[in-house]
Specification:
The chain has 277 residues and is an alpha/beta fold. The protein folds into two domains: 145 residues, Rossmann fold (3-Layer(aba) Sandwich); 110 residues, Rossmann fold, CATH 3.40.50.1860. 43% of the residues lie in helices and 15% in strands. The chain has a six-stranded parallel beta sheet with strand order 4-3-1-2-9-10, with helices on both faces. Strands 6-5-7-8 form a four-stranded parallel beta sheet, with helices on both faces. Helix 9 links the parallel strand 7 and strand 8. The longest helix is centred in the first third of the chain and has 19 residues. The chain is globular and about 50 Å long. The two termini are 25 Å apart. The chain binds D-glutamic acid (DGL). D-glutamic acid (DGL) binds next to helix 3. D-glutamic acid binds next to helix 3.
Length: 277
C-alpha cells in the first residue's frame, strides 16, 4: 500500500494497554515538538498470553486504523509481544512507512554486565517467539541469561491491581535467583515488556541497588528520531507538540494511568478499529 507522509502528521504509538505509556513518556521527552496519537488496545489485552495469530491480527487492525484514520507518519509498536509477533507483517503491509518496534535490551545488558549474568522478565509469548530466540542465539557466550515468563503481571498492572502486581513481582524476582554485583549474581535486569517499567520502583526495591533495570523507552525514542530524520519527517524544534489518547477498552483506566505516570490530564477517546466493534 503506498502512502504519502507529511512531517506535520502525528506519530502513532500502540500497545495492548497502558504499558506503551512507558515508551510514550520517553518519546515525548526525546521529541517534544512532535504530535502523538497513542492507542491502547485494552479491549484485547493482555497480548502476552495469546497466540501469535491473534496478536498479529490485532496489530494489523490497530495499525490500519492509525494509518487510515489518523494519517500517522510513523508507527511505534510500543509492545514487545506485538513486535515479536507482527512487525514483519506490518512492514510488509506498509513498506514505505517507518515502523519502529521494541525488543528486550539483551545486547546492551550483556555489554554492561560485569557479572555476566543478565535477568530477562517478559511475557511468555515474547520469550517463546522466534524473534527472541534469534536475538538470544546471537548473544550466546556473551552472558548467561536468566529468563522469566511473568504470567499475569502485565494484566495486574493493566487493571491497576497493585497488590497482585506486588505479589507477582516478588514471586518472579525470587524465582530468578540472586541479584547484585557479586560473581554469579544478576547485575542487569531487562524489562522485556513495556508494562514493567510502570512498576520499576517496586522491582528496583526488590532487586536492590546493585542491579540496573533496562527499559525500552529511551532507545526506542532515539531510534524513532533517527528514522524520522532519515525519512525527512522530523519536525523542527521549538513547537510544542500535542498528545491524543485513545482506547478500545476502558478509557478511564488509560486516563488514570496517563495522569499517574506522565502527568497527562486529558480525556481519553474511545476508538473502534474493528468494523463492527
Ligand atoms: N506491553 C506489552 C509488551 O511489551 C504486552 C503486555 C501484554 O499485553 O501481555 O509485551
Amino acid at each position: 500500500m503506498s502512502r504519502c507522509a507529511h512531517a506535520a502528521a502525528p506519530i502513532g504509538v500502540f500497545d495492548s494497554g497502558v504499558g506503551g505509556l512507558s515508551v510514550l513518556r520517553a518519546l515525548r521527552a526525546e521529541l517534544p515538538q512532535e504530535d502523538f496519537v497513542y492507542l491502547s488496545d485494552a479491549a484485547h489485552a493482555p497480548y502476552g498470553e495469546r497466540t501469535d495469530d491473534y496478536v498479529n491480527a490485532r496489530a494489523l487492525r490497530v495499525a490500519d486504523y492509525l494509518v487510515a484514520q489518523h494519517g500517522v507518519k510513523t508507527l511505534v509498536v510500543a509492545c514487545n509481544t506485538a513486535t515479536a509477533a507482527a512487525i514483519h507483517t506490518l512492514r510488509e503491509r506498509w513498506p514505505s512507512l517507518p515502523i519502529v518496534g521494541v525488543e528486550p535490551a539483551l545486547k546492551p545488558a550483556a555489554a554492561a554486565s560485569r557479572t555476566k549474568v543478565v535477568g530477562v522478565m517478559a511475557t511468555r509469548s515474547t520469550l517463546q517467539s522466534a524473534k527472541f530466540k534469534t536475538l538470544l542465539d546471537k548473544l550466546q557466550g556473551q552472558a548467561r541469561f536468566v529468563l522469566q515468563a511473568c504470567d499475569g503481571l502485565a494484566g495486574a498492572i493493566e487493571s491497576g491491581e497493585a497488590g497482585t502486581a506486588e505479589l507477582l513481582c516478588a514471586r518472579y524476582v525470587q524465582a530468578m535467583g540472586g541479584f547484585g554485583a557479586m560473581d554469579g549474581q544478576i547485575d542487569q535486569l531487562v524489562l522485556g515488556c513495556t508494562h514493567y517499567p510502570l512498576v520499576g520502583d517496586l522491582l528496583q526495591n526488590l532487586v536492590g541497588p546493585h542491579t540496573t533495570l533496562l527499559e525500552a523507552g529511551p532507545p526506542v525514542s532515539q531510534q524513532t528520531r533517527r528514522v524520522l530524520e532519515q525519512a525527512g519527517l522530523l519536525l523542527p524544534q521549538g513547537i510544542a507538540g500535542t498528545t491524543r489518547l485513545l482506547s478500545t477498552g476502558n478509557t478511564a483506566a488509560l486516563g488514570g494511568s496517563a495522569l499517574r505516570w506522565l502527568g497527562l490530564g486529558m480525556p481519553v477517546v474511545s476508538a473502534q478499529p474493528d468494523p463492527h466493534g
